[in-house]
# Entry
Amino acid sequence: INEILASLGDTYLNIDTLLHQATEYLIEFVKKLYTGISDTFIGLIFSIYILADKDRLRAGAKKITTAIVGKDRKDGVINTAREIDHAFGGFIQGKIVNAIIIFVLTFIAFWAFGIPYPQLLALIIGITDIGES
# Structure
């Protein structure tokens, strides 16, 4: 009887530890999910605000640039900022085109080999390719 009670006690402790760990994991998951959703929502609102007032923001940025670097160097700073914007824009466009190509090729390969859910898997691979450097 002592062995059975000891075995039941050990089983109860294992289940208790497992439930405690699962609860902690679930709480962390919910926190991260909430943070991700709220960050996305705030970013969306912020980007809409910037796009709506881009002309005023551009004029304000030119005034601030003139105040910081002076009238004689303002045009050079603005041209440099335009070149940087053009380079980053080209980089991002290139990454998106590359991701689309990866998506299409992966979809064709998965479909040809009969792998289940080829669209979903190819989409995940294409999206994660954007983050690769």
The mean pLDDT is 89. Helices lie at 2-52, 54-69, 71-112, 118-131. The two ends are 63 Å apart (CA to CA).
